[in-house]
């Protein structure tokens, strides 16, 4: 208990300065509660409003894919350059040091493998696990137009309901099946459905034509997946265009961890996302970092 004697008289009331009521920096998030906003502010950098999420959750349906065979060896060196790690609880517990300060986005849907129908997912992680693991968001795959479309949407809405109870945001991940069109019309539909049903932010794919209509018609932030590995300059150009056209960041996996120089690549992606660096300059940065690493 503080000493009751000799209390300094309070004088700093600043009666002439009204208390400021600030809006929250993220699109569509102003009405959320403090804990939810605080978690989102750990995913998205409040200075830039953007995020570089490193996606390494691919193993949950496709096993040890190229670049993720040894997360301890290949991925841990990248962690300091990511704002956020997107992964499964298995890899988180087994490999990621608990001293990691990056925000964790936990994959909570699952139950399908590449050997069967991918849209046949369920919720695979209890909310208590997300709380116990101190995650900043929960990621649920949503298969609009897929065979198990309704089931995947309900998976998401259930997590939105439970997450709202505990202040944990839900990331809706729009999946693209073999038969689904990858165009702005499809992604407008998929993203808007996820947002209308309560997702706090959405991961989708970049499309060259009309991507700005996808971001502008979605009332919450959009981050783009990287998709299959393409040349580094092309991946940086895609990230640059996505940001210019309204994306709030990237959730990139293969184009980082399958790069010839993943540590250089993630830094180049950061330069595009947070510093508005042009693809050409970011590619120069990639090349010089790659060269300097080889010299060591
Ligand atoms: C699929 O496994 C996940 O949703 C990935 O997190 C997502 O596809 C992003 O990874 P990539 O940039 O490799 O597409």
Summarize the structure.
The protein has 296 residues and is of the alpha/beta class.
* Largest beta-sheet characterization: 8 strands, parallel, barrel
Ligand inventory: ribose-5-phosphate
Helix coverage percent of residues?
A: 25-40%
Strand content: 5-15%
Instruction: Give the integer mean of the pLDDT values.
Output: 95
Q: What would you call the shape? A: globular
Explain what you see.
With 296 residues, the chain is of the alpha/beta class. The protein is built from twelve helices and ten strands. The chain has helices at residues 34-43, 59-62, 71-75, 89-95, 127-132, 149-166, 184-196, 211-216, 232-244, 254-257, 262-275, 279-295; strands spanning 51-55, 84-87, 103-107, 109-110, 122-123, 137-142, 170-174, 201-204, 222-225, 249-252. The strands form two sheets. An eight-stranded parallel β-barrel has the order 1-2-3-6-7-8-9-10, surrounded by six helices. The mean pLDDT is 95. Ribose-5-phosphate is lined by residues 55, 57-58, 86, 173, 225-227, 251-255.
Distinctive features:
296 residues, alpha/beta, eight-stranded parallel barrel, 12 helices, 40% helix, globular, binds ribose-5-phosphate
SSE blueprint and pairings:
Layout lengths: L33 H10 L7 E5 L3 H4 L8 H5 L8 E4 L1 H7 L7 E5 L1 E2 L11 E2 L3 H6 L4 E6 L6 H18 L3 E5 L9 H13 L4 E4 L6 H6 L5 E4 L6 H13 L4 E4 L1 H4 L4 H14 L3 H17 L1
Parallel strand pairs: 1-2, 1-10, 2-3, 3-6, 6-7, 7-8, 8-9, 9-10
Antiparallel strand pairs: 4-5
The structure holds ribose-5-phosphate.
